[in-house]
Records
---
Amino acid sequence: MDKCRLVVFDTTLRDGEQAPGFSLTTDEKVRMARQLEALGVDIVEAGFPIASEDDAEAVRKVALALERPIVAALARCAPNDIDRAAWAIAPARRSRIHTFIATSDLHLDRKLRMTREAALDAAVAAVRRARGYTSDVQFSAEDATRSDRDYLCKVIESVIEAGATTINLPDTVGYSTPDEVAEFFTSIIGRVPNADRAVFSTHCHDDLGLAAANSLAALGAGARQVECTINGIGERAGNASLEEVIMATRIRADRLPFETSINTRELYPSSQLLTSLTNESVQANKAIVGRNAFAHEAGIHQDGMLKDRRTYEIMRPEDVGVPRTTLVLGKHSGRHAVQKRCEQLGYELTRQQLDAAYRRMTSLADTQKHITDADLEGIIAEVSGTARRAAREFAVPEAGYGFGV
Ligand code: KIV
Ligand code: ZN
């Protein structure tokens, strides 16, 4: 099956960074931007320069630091915003101005207090102004998925005519469902007469937990740029998580025939760097990068994993940069995992000793969440004064598997 090349637009440093608790200093932004370059994203949206002096400086520093990715800056459809964005990205080897205005009546009437005509004029003028600075101009119709279709198509046609090369249609408030998003992109791309002159882009928020699914639906319906963030950070419930979208296309290439320039082994290091810079950890059960994404405690699962990892893992941890699978000893663990861990620690137990150790381990696990190696060694000493301690090098876990707490 032929694969379509997707453009990966990372907005961790803009949509992600503007969420409460995720702000970064300029130096931190540059460090993160370098990691995004190592990860292989095509575009780094570095900030919103008109928002503050610091943000403008940070975008400029990122523009100076990166070699391969396009550096994008956000701007409202207003002359000062465009000029500031242009200043900030000027040092970049390849740059993009990303200008946006809301197109839904709700946003136009209640937030911007603007008519549809005035918003259309502002959009066209902003794109023309941006084209005076760079040939790579992205236009976003904020709240696109809740906009009147006829009006939205008119705006898109007009901004492409004015020089926009990418058209982003955000599900700004994460309201859509995957089938709706697919129908939306199919209909818009089919109706806009000059649609073939622009790349269509998807930017989904996660208010209903559907951002990754909605992004994939948009790609299936003709979008060729996906906007996402590391760890899914972003406004409110966040944006589509880059690691989820990318791994879905890798693991289910049979259904999602897309290729990207992402080096998946850099996914976990990117996630880790972001959590250390922001001091905000990801939830333990977060797909791909959460602490439990490759951890198993239940006895049946551990037994399956010890026999063949494919029983309970659909991807290899090392392929996303996670050092290894962890088999966690706890009250749900079985004999097989206890035996394996004892062996790895260098103890040979008889059948009776193992049974006794297992019973002790499960009753201790009723009183504490996890069983550490020290706990297990204490139990082994109790059940068998004669348990032989083997050379320490036998304690190395088997390839790909480790035990953790
Ligand atoms: O969610 C949104 O609509 C945005 C735009 C500025 C692209 O972040
Ligand atoms: Zn957004």
Note: The pocket of zinc ion (ligand 2) is lined by residues 15, 170, 172, 203, 205, 234-235 (CB under 6 Å).
---
Amino acid sequence: MKVLGIETSCDDTAIGIVNYGRGRFVIQAQVEASQVLIHRKYGGVVPEVAAREHAVTIIPTLKAALRRARVVWNDLDVIAVTAGPGLMTALSVGVETARTLSYALKKPLVRVNHIEGHIISNWIHPAAAKIRFPAVALIVSGGHTELILVKSIGQYKLLGRTLDDAVGEAFDKVAKLLGLTYPGGPSVAKRALRGNPAAFSFPRALMGRGNLDFSYAGLKTAVLYEWRKHRRRSVKLVNDLCASFQAAATDQLVAKSRWAMDKTRAKTLLLAGGVAANELLRRRLSSIVNREFPGARYFQAPLSLCMDNGVMIAMAGAFHATHRRFTPWKKIRADPNWELV
Ligand code: KG4
Ligand code: ZN
């Protein structure tokens, strides 16, 4: 089955084409038109600007993906598109494009939840057959910080989520405060390598044992207050702030993932989303699963699929297509607040 995936929920116009057969995925094309340079000026994503850029780039990006996969329109079996959650104006560009393609090519259409797409990106792993249920998925991005119980593909239960900022958003805001480039995650992580994570003791919120919710507003504010205290703003200060912030941010993610694994007796921990690219987080989660949960396995999305992409949407679309969960082109709508669970 050849599936086209279209993703325009935020600031990447992303297309993926995957081949799915005998439980395995082969990526045939992954093309992204990133708007990072455009949004960098503002230090964040401007919805109207994002939507206009999606409208300009979506057709050329689709064509580039077809060329790369060496397929023509009629070779596609299924069209999958992110219908939410995300920015309404941005989602609409992808959904309207998918609707038009489904009608014109007479191909079935699958609406995909963006968060489910991130979860399913883990199935690209060659050992994905070893993903056992129940699994716990930690989804961390610029818009999301969620712990989800995955009973099986398509059956989810929310275990915990952020009560205020998403962790990626906290990385982005701290980077902006310290004058580092957008997106903030990679810039903060890079500076943190040279800093001392114990230089400042920043708060770890909601650390009552077993609490599976997250909070990043207090941490972000603590970094702001510390920054304001210093008249001389050296490179060392920025590095130490980054390292101490990153340590506090990841402590919260690691502690709650551990409790979620404990509580649900999960057999697998899955990590995905933009912040899943963070090296420290990857190392720490891998080490707690290996040390503390004998018999359980840890999977993390490959770096190439951490940021928003069309491949993960095509993969989720393939799973739903095998169960014939299609949406008629007349009925599909973008749903900016679509809750997975
Ligand atoms: O999943 P994604 O591409 O878009 C959303 O759905 O939000 O995630 C983007 C987020 C941004 O906040 C970015 O700063 C963060 O992922 N990010 C990182 C790293 N690389 C990207 N955060 C921490 N460490 C990184 N290495
Ligand atoms: Zn995302």
Note: The chain is about 40% helix and 20% strand.
---
Amino acid sequence: MFRVGVGWDRHRLEPGRLCTLGGVRFADCPVGPLGHSDGDAVVHAVIDALLGAAGLGDIGRHFPDTDPAWAGADSLDLLARSRAKLAAAGWRVVNVDITLIAQRPTIAPRAAAMAAAMAGPLRVEPALVSVKGTSGEGLGPEGRGECVTALAVALLTEAGAAESGG
Ligand code: MG
């Protein structure tokens, strides 16, 4: 059996925030996503796609932004925790496809690094994590560089007994 899920997240960009997207640090970016955690909209969209596919709710249910435990959280850690919840429910990840809409930072040169960063916690090959960037053509809040928005689709399949651990 397969299950598909979709995720969407948007974070405002503010000066002086570290910029981490898809688990990759953009050290040269003068703005970064505002958030209770590290604000990594890409990973948050992936988490929502995974949880949605498994029928396990959403990121806010599992990692509420009212809980100090998740203040400044590394979203890759939340991703690993989410994958473990899927495994406990009998699911494993087949593939993930992501579109990141951002005027800044520039995504394409770091897309492969993002895929590799997320593949580890997802326990899949990097080739099964697709990251695509688009600028928004200067339109809307993404195009004005005010925010980043990420869309993700995830496909799950039933985990075999040997694959469901952890
Ligand atoms: Mg978020």
Note: Residues 11 and 33 are 5 Å apart (CA to CA).
---
Amino acid sequence: MRIENKVSLITGGGSGIGKSSALLFAREGSKVVVADINQTEGRSTVDEIIAAGGEATFVNADVSKATDCKNMIEQTEAKYGALHILFNNAGVMDSNDDNAEATTEDTWDLTMNINAKGVFLGCKYGIPALKRAGGGSIINTASFVSLLGAATPQVAYTASKGAVLSLTRELAVIHAREHIRVNALCPGPLRTELLMKFLNTEEKKQRRLVHIPMGRFGEADEMARAALFLASDDASYVTGTEFLVDGGITAAYVTPE
Ligand code: NAD
């Protein structure tokens, strides 16, 4: 087991990457706190972990709210005595996100509040807990669009993920000597609910697929395995990275037929 006796907190643990990671982390020996705004989905992840013989608990949290982030950390320490792995993964992609002219202020604010401020708040309250535990690993879910402009306009989302990557780098530098590693997981386009709702026509899906050398969307489980690496001591000298798991999308200039 790669993270035995560790305590992990995963935001957005009710679906997609967060859910796959919660299940995998529990299989690898971690106690898991699943935080999500969606109680039904979050509780169902916990039920699956417990049914498989693991340990997990659910905390209802909206990561854009400071009180909720403070509470999820407090609940984690109260239940399991420490926090070692903080996976700030919750994120949204608003269906009205578009180019700068068409994107509304509401879409911008909603996206920034959850995707960027949510990661900041997770770190703000989580870092003191990691220090109390003697160190740990933070994984922030950014995206390949932290590094590239997206083919389908989504300026608020792209800007929010750029913020996650920059924040991650700076925190990695600040906390390196406190045994806290901070890395950004940068997934490529995935076959999860978040993206499939946004790329809601075959034409939009194809427009994205054409850029991926592997010619397919990634799976949540493939991100979970990368997150496990970053969470575990296997990544003991890895901090401040943009950890790309993207089917080669950022390596491609022209994609082969
Ligand atoms: P998903 O929609 O399957 O899961 C997201 C989860 O976050 C859901 O359970 C949702 O309820 C929860 N959530 C949403 N807003 C929240 C809030 N305010 N507070 C707490 N929980 C909240 O999406 P996913 O594809 O698993 O995405 C996870 C992360 O990966 C996101 O940060 C997303 O931006 C990022 N990402 C996704 C893709 C992709 O193609 N799907 C690509 C790159 C990055």
Note: The chain is about 45% helix and 15% strand.
